[in-house]
Specification:
Keywords: Isomerase. One of its GO terms (molecular function) is isomerase activity. This is Amino acid racemase. The chain is α/β, with parallel strands linked by helices. The chain folds into two domains: 109 residues, Rossmann fold (3-Layer(aba) Sandwich), CATH 3.40.50.1860; 111 residues, Rossmann fold. Helices cover 49% and strands 12% of the residues. It has a four-stranded parallel β-sheet with strand order 5-4-6-7, with helices on both faces. The longest helix is centred in the first third of the chain and has 16 residues. It is globular. The two termini are 22 Å apart.
């Protein structure tokens, strides 16, 4: 029996579009009826998540996303996915207003890396300033005694430019920015790198990335399909 999936999207809109397309592509289905029923709220006007974290002015963002979670519950969804890494800083707040399980994209991504790389000691995190400074991935890594490593200052500026100046502005992204940030993390001794921003997941659609880059959106897609009762295909 398939379960209806709720999605709080629009952060950003293109990332949500890629998430939806990946769920369809990776669900084992030979008919329409074998796909998952989904309710997608593409809340593009959602206040900026990074700004909410860095300034501490979070009430406007929380009011918006908590309302979305409650609305999805009223529509009968049985799991909620949020294809936005930065928003997961507020996961406990969001979960507190709904009985519907919210998939922990961050925690599941770290678990996935640990299972795939049992000897991993240090994971590079390529995400927004909000995700980095909030320590969202650091806390998830702590559970496995893994060090979470951020790009150094100059490299992190390139990551933010890739996210905001390129992908969120509708461009495919500058490969040189990604490569320099990735090399910075590898120079710091990272065994693997989590692509911890859905805009970087969009970038990955245009350019190949190294095999030791684990896309958090891919992990969320996998969990979304499995928890909805469908079969996942690689």
């Amino acid at each position: 029996m398939l379960k209806k999936l709720g999605v709080i999207g629009g952060m950003g809109p293109e990332a949500t579009s890629f998430y939806y397309a990946r769920v369809i592509a990776r669900t084992v289905a030979s008919t329409d009826q074998e796909h998952i029923d989904m309710v997608i709220l593409s809340h593009a006007t959602m206040p900026d998540r990074t700004k909410a974290i860095l300034t501490g002015h979070k009430q406007e963002f929380l009011a918006a996303i908590e309302k979305d979670a409650r609305d999805l519950e009223k529509l009968g969804v049985e799991n909620i996915a949020i294809p936005c890494n930065t928003a997961h800083y507020f996961l406990k707040d969001i979960q507190a207003v709904t009985k519907v399980p919210v998939i922990d994209m961050v925690g599941e991504s770290v678990r996935y890396v640990k299972e795939g790389y049992p000897d991993v000691k240090k994971i590079g995190i390529m995400g927004t300033d909000g995700t980095i400074q909030a320590g969202t991935y650091s806390r998830a890594c702590d559970k496995y005694q893994i060090a979470a490593c951020a790009p150094r200052e100059d490299a992190q500026r390139l990551v933010m430019s890739l996210i905001y100046d390129d992908i969120k502005s509708g461009r495919p992204g500058d490969r040189a920015k990604f490569d320099q940030a990735y090399e910075d993390l590898k120079e710091q001794g990272c065994d693997a790198v989590i692509l911890a921003c859905t805009e970087i997941s969009v970038f990955k659609e245009y350019y190949p990335v190294p095999a030791d880059c684990i896309d958090a959106m891919d992990v969320l897609v996998r969990e979304s399909i499995i928890r909805s009762g469908a079969a996942y295909k690689e």
